[in-house]
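In this section we walk through a basic example: taking a raw amino acid sequence and producing a predicted 3D structure, encoded as discrete structure tokens. The instruction is simple. Fold the sequence below.
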Amino acid sequence: MNSTSPVKRCSGECGQYKPESEFYRRGGRLAHLLCSECKTCMVAKQAAWRRENAEHMRAYDRKRYPGRDRTAKNEALRALRATDEGRRRLLDQRLR
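The resulting token sequence is shown next.
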């Protein structure tokens, strides 16, 4: 870190002083300001929220991407894998 570069303290988990390049910019009319948490803390916080709210995110993704629902396909594959013949057919397809 260069001594002349501006630094800012992260208000997230790490609480470290980091250069301003380690912080995201806020959006819209506040684009000239920086977020209070560093990029690393913000990514970790978002990942934790997605894990804790997995069902909410699945519903959101289904609504946002309606053509990508793979539930029926996944159930068919599970049924196929449940039999020995089905496992052999899937293995043969992979080896081709």
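Looking at the output, two observations stand out. Strands lie at 7-9, 17-19, 23-25, 34-38. The longest helix spans residues 39-52. In the next section we compare this with other chains.
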